[in-house]
Design a protein that fits this description.
heterodimer, A: 252 residues, alpha/beta, Rossmann fold, six-stranded mixed β-sheet, four-stranded antiparallel β-sheet, 10 helices, 36% helix, globular, B: 216 residues, mainly alpha, Methane Monooxygenase Hydroxylase, Chain G, domain 1, 6 helices, 86% helix, elongated
Chain lengths: 252, 216
């Protein structure tokens, strides 16, 4: 229990009358990579967005059940959503750097938090870029526009931007689906390094990627959590027939 | 419904190749024993040559498994099946070697030996062959019950081996058996006993492919 950053209890989610998640119970462990897999429309991205309340932006979305972040339900009325999103960073499918310099992309969050000291900002930028394995490639061009970076570099910049806030959890929604194999490999290596300090939850359509980089895997189907176990078990001896059928490509 | 008809076909072909390899190995064991009992050097020579076909099967199946792993990136039951096939062909190849070993002894043997313990040796060979057949059957049908019977049957082969050992020892003491022939006979029965062990290994891999872990 002590190693869980999130504990999800009986989570149901509705888009209007359509129920997208059914009674999800799941724990997210610290210093582990948790992969969410399943066919399109199975609810994995919806579930991911529940963890930092990104679904709040959808009007018709209703939620019941509990998403406990260190025993506090993030859906409690008085829960501080801004601080939640500082602690639970997010990286999206398509790299989305701000149209500003590389430096300012990283410094943006800390500045919003009131950090003005140049030396401190420099330290944060350098540390974040180093931890996202981008420093060596951009250290001489920090004042260049982030838009001048390649897709893979932009995605690592987005990870650096999330790291700059010193989060505890990083959510990744198909972070490599728009990247070439080399850039994908770099992100996967990075994820492996990042788990020393963070809990990572990743939605991926690549079964091989889930098998390569995650410690735990959750298989979603039609809004239900069919099976959740250690990745080695899911990919060698899944308990549920539905999981086996999906991962072996017999349906999908 | 399946989206992987080509993959399914490849797995079926892989199973079929393993069965063919198994049939060849069983045939070689059967004939090698005849060659020994009948002291038929010509037949023995043929079995030694045929062992190359067994080795070729092992090579081809191994290559096919690697190709499937590369192209299809199998997981779960598919991965277990391919892993098991890769392990089973090693055991089958060893059984093939033992058929060849028995045949080599036949060639070295004096022609004028009086056959001894023919009944027990035949029974032992029958049991070993039966175990290989059952192990392959359990694989084809993915049937754990048959695989478990193979494992249980190993005691029968071991008992025959111990029986032969005692009778031969007594025959040596009584000076009723040619010394070289006694040695050959012990070696043949040891090979048959080892064949039983390999059949057990195959059955254990079948169980692994079904349940995903080894029996305790």
């Amino acid at each position: 229990m002590i190693n869980n950053v999130f504990t999800i209890k009986n989570l149901n989610l509705f888009y209007g009358k359509y129920q997208a998640l059914h009674s999800i119970n799941l724990d997210i462990e610290r210093n582990k990579v948790t992969a969410l897999i399943g066919p399109s429309g199975c609810g994995k991205s919806t579930f991911l967005r529940c963890l930092n309340r990104m679904n709040d932006l959808i009007d018709s979305c209703q939620i019941d059940g509990e998403v406990l972040y260190h025993n506090d339900n993030v859906y409690n009325r008085n829960f501080d959503v801004i601080s939640l999103r500082t602690k639970v960073g997010m990286v999206f499918q398509k790299p989305n750097p701000f149209p500003m310099t590389i430096y300012d992309n990283i410094a943006y969050g800390p500045r919003c938090q009131g950090i003005k000291d140049k030396t401190e900002l420099n330290k944060i930028v350098e540390k974040s870029l180093k931890n996202s394995a981008l420093w060596e490639e951009v250290k001489d061009r920090l004042k260049d526009s982030a838009m001048s970076l390649s897709g893979g570099q932009q995605q690592r910049l987005c990870i650096a931007r999330a790291i700059a806030m010193e989060p505890e959890v990083i959510l990744m929604d198909e972070p490599t689906s728009a990247l070439d194999p080399i850039a994908t490999m770099k992100i996967e290596e990075l994820i492996n390094d990042l788990k020393q300090n963070y809990a990572i939850v990743i939605v991926t359509h690549s079964m091989q990627q889930a098998a390569r980089i995650s410690d735990n895997t959750a298989f979603f189907h039609l809004g239900e959590l069919v099976e959740y176990d250690k990745t080695d078990i899911i990919f060698t001896t899944p308990k549920e027939v539905k999981t086996e059928e999906y991962i072996t490509g017999r349906f999908g | 419904m399946t989206f992987r008809t080509q993959f399914e076909k490849e797995l079926e072909e892989l199973k079929l190749s393993l069965i063919k390899m198994g049939d060849l190995v069983i045939k070689n064991i059967h004939l090698s024993l005849h060659s020994f009992v009948e002291m038929n050097a010509e037949l023995a020579d043929q079995i030694i040559k045929d062992d190359k076909l067994v080795n070729q099967f092992e090579y081809d199946i191994e290559k096919e498994c690697m190709r499937i792993i590369l192209r299809e990136q199998p997981v779960a039951r598919d991965l277990r099946l391919i892993t098991s096939v890769l392990k089973m062909i090693t055991d089958l190849e060893r059984i093939g070697d033992h058929a060849s070993d028995i045949s080599k002894l036949t060639i070295f043997m004096e022609k004028n030996n009086k056959p001894f313990l023919v009944k027990q040796v035949h029974k032992m060979a029958d049991e070993s062959e039966k175990m290989i057949k059952m192990a392959l059957e359990s694989f084809v049908n993915q049937d754990q019950t048959i695989a478990l019977k193979v494992i249980e049957n190993d005691d029968v082969v071991d008992d025959y081996f111990n029986e032969v050992q005692h009778i031969v020892a007594e025959a040596i003491r009584q000076n009723n058996i040619d010394a070289d022939y006694a040695l050959y006979l012990m070696m043949v029965t040891k090979y048959l006993e080892r064949i039983g062990d390999h059949a057990v290994n195959i059955a254990e891999w079948v169980i692994f492919s079904i349940i995903g872990h080894h029996r305790n």
